[in-house]
Automatic annotation (TrEMBL):
Source organism superkingdom: Bacteria
InterPro entries for this protein: D-isomer_DH_CS, D-isomer_DH_NAD-bd, NAD(P)-bd_dom_sf
One MF term in the entry's GO annotations: oxidoreductase activity, acting on the CH-OH group of donors, NAD or NADP as acceptor
Keywords: Cytoplasm, NAD, NADP, Oxidoreductase, Pyruvate
Protein name stated in the entry: Glyoxylate/hydroxypyruvate reductase GhrA
SUPFAM superfamilies given in the database record: NAD(P)-binding Rossmann-fold domains (SSF51735)
D-isomer specific 2-hydroxyacid dehydrogenase NAD-binding domain boundaries: 106-277
Organism: Pantoea coffeiphila
Pfam families given in the database record: 2-Hacid_dh_C
TM region(s), chain numbering: none
Alphabetized PANTHER family for the sequence: 2-HACID_DH_C DOMAIN-CONTAINING PROTEIN (PTHR43333), D-ISOMER SPECIFIC 2-HYDROXYACID DEHYDROGENASE NAD-BINDING DOMAIN-CONTAINING PROTEIN (PTHR43333:SF1)
Length: 312
């Protein structure tokens, strides 16, 4: 079995050695331009077209939860992937715990009004703020996949009312579920903290706009853990200025790195992290990939296969 590997920034040798340890019979190599030797599987991030084009692969594994890079390449170069070759993404592999940490940190901070106390501290103002009521501090998840479900459950543990919205019906124990465009308004109107974990597809680009934000509970909060293009930047700034949104925590952006002159940097009510809310954990990711390849070799279909039409 031959496996080719490409990632623009990961330590290639560590991944090659790690996969070979888990699949002793495999031959794993770093793909380089001009390499047209046989391969059964490809492990990739932002793959060059020439890496995959013309190969009859048994499977391609995207080294991340998102597959925007590959789908974007396929849109421009549909010949890059032979028909029927399955594409898999990392659904968890340690990322759900990191997403939980990020969401819980910000939700608890806003719930306890710690961000407002920090502003009072800068003003040297000793003042007690009225506590938020937990039953009114509802959390809404846009996206109810593996990561969305994990974040929802972690917030349930803190006693918050949690709801989720997804394109198709999903059921998460203890969570109020909504689905489809016809139920989006009802979902939004009962949400105080909106957490975005939607996949990035043509249908979801720009979904977090002024119209959507205006439907949230008054004084809402936003966490974007998915992709930057989901948010219309100017609409978020307008919603903050109008008081429709109290604060936002953003990990992803339309342009990355975020330009130094972008108004998000100087906005007092926007928290920024550099697209690291949940990073790929190599050991967990390699465990999944090795197990998935073993399933493929036994004519079984692993979890995490991407629907190329839907984009996730």
């Amino acid at each position: 079995m031959d496996i080719i590997y490409y990632h623009p920034s990961f330590n290639a040798q560590a991944w090659i050695d790690g996969v070979q340890r888990r699949l002793p019979g495999a031959r794993v190599r770093l793909w380089q331009p001009g390499d047209d030797l046989p391969a059964d599987y490809a492990l990739v991030r932002e793959p060059p077209v020439a890496m995959l084009q013309g190969r009859q692969l048994k499977g391609v594994f995207a080294l991340g939860a998102g597959v925007d890079d590959i789908l974007g390449q396929l849109k421009r170069h549909p010949e890059m992937l032979a028909p029927g070759v399955p594409l898999f993404r990392l659904e968890d592999t340690g990322m759900s715990r990191q997403m939980q940490e990020y969401a819980v940190y910000h939700v608890l901070g806003w719930f306890r009004r710690f961000n407002e106390y920090q502003q009072l501290k800068r003003e040297a103002s000793w003042k007690h703020l009225e506590n938020n009521q937990r039953e009114a501090f509802s959390i809404g998840l846009l996206g109810a996949g593996v990561l969305g479900g994990s974040v929802a459950k972690s917030l349930l543990d803190w006693g918050f009312p949690v709801r989720c919205w997804s394109r198709s019906p999903k059921q998460i124990e203890g969570v109020t579920s909504f689905h489809g465009q016809e139920q989006l308004g009802e979902f939004l109107s009962g949400t105080r903290v909106l957490i975005n974990l939607l996949p990035n597809t043509p249908q979801t680009v720009g979904i977090i706009n002024r119209q959507l934000l205006s439907q949230l509970k008054p004084g809402a909060f936003l966490i974007n853990l998915a992709r930057g293009p989901h948010v219309v930047d100017d609409d978020l700034l307008a919603a903050l200025a109008a008081g429709e949104v109290n604060a936002a925590a953003l990990d992803v952006f339309n342009v990355e790195p975020l330009p130094a002159d972008h108004p998000f940097w100087s906005h007092p009510d926007i928290a920024i992290t550099p697209h690291n809310a949940a990073v790929t954990l190599p050991e967990e990711a390699m465990d999944y990939i090795a197990g998935a390849i073993a399933q493929c070799e036994n004519n079984q279909m692993p979890e995490g296969r991407v629907d190329l039409e839907r984009g996730y």
